[in-house]
């Protein structure tokens, strides 16, 4: 681990105790986020992106609902899974902040927007009340909110959903966390605003060396914003690569499927969008072998019987597939023949 490592998740398992018994939603996930690095986390609905990020902040009810295993090292030494509730609370919103998909639940309905942002700023930085308010206006402006000087006096219910989301983002970024966890933060926003928010995140990432864990369904956003990408499938990482390698030479059949399903702006629009066949199995019926095998066009009997490990390739990519080398060779042959 280098001294630049901000977050080091090691063999994380998240088990939920449900009415139907124990389910393991996250099963042995390991990844790192360095200072100043934006790591994208992608995968279909139900793959465990949100549970992974919420486990990092320990947001589930540890008395009744959840058991964690593994280690989550923050800045090299602190294992977040071992911290007391109180210490964990200090880290949340201070060193590590999260932007959720649904902002309403995180804003206080009886306090003005300006007060909430200013309060968050004063909690983390040594500034006067006046400076904090000015900062709040500045942050609102940066997130593209019109007439921010007036908006600071509004209450959350005066704002539209998209505006509230921007307020949440302003509040989170105003605190200048070392690590930002963003779970589909721009899905509900229109494209212009989305672009502004992504610029804002990217700017703070460069200026403050803020590390970012960016969860999204949108591979276009990943290509634009992220440095490295983690691909999840059914509670595990199936591929990890730099953003360039992921798009140039995806190794896992699942990643290939995800990339093929990006709508193309150019070319034959009448061509049917590629969609990966089938659906993500439920946590009660996890396949014995490779978890993706029942949906994989390359699967054989080995895949159905034995689960592959995540292995590192010579080009620093990680992949969890028995046949990735063979598939790459076959594709190369095919490309040579057809060119
Ligand atoms: N509180 C919970 N109790 C039991 N199971 C849960 C709980 N929260 C999530 N799960 C299960 O964990 C798995 C991963 O869910 P998660 O919300 O992380 O998916 P996701 O990748 O974020 O999907 P989406 O793209 O739809 O947001 C799912 O099978 C989900 O049903
Ligand atoms: Mg989610």
Automatic annotation (TrEMBL):
Residues 7-259 form the ABC transporter domain. InterPro entries: AAA+_ATPase, ABC_Ni/Peptide_Import, ABC_transporter-like_ATP-bd, ABC_transporter-like_CS, Oligopep_ABC_C, P-loop_NTPase. This is ABC transporter ATP-binding protein. The keyword Secreted does not apply. Keywords: ATP-binding, Cell membrane, Membrane, Nucleotide-binding, Transport. It is a peripheral membrane protein. Belongs to the ABC transporter superfamily. GO terms for molecular function: ATP binding; ATP hydrolysis activity. It is found in: Cell membrane. Pfam families: ABC_tran, oligo_HPY.
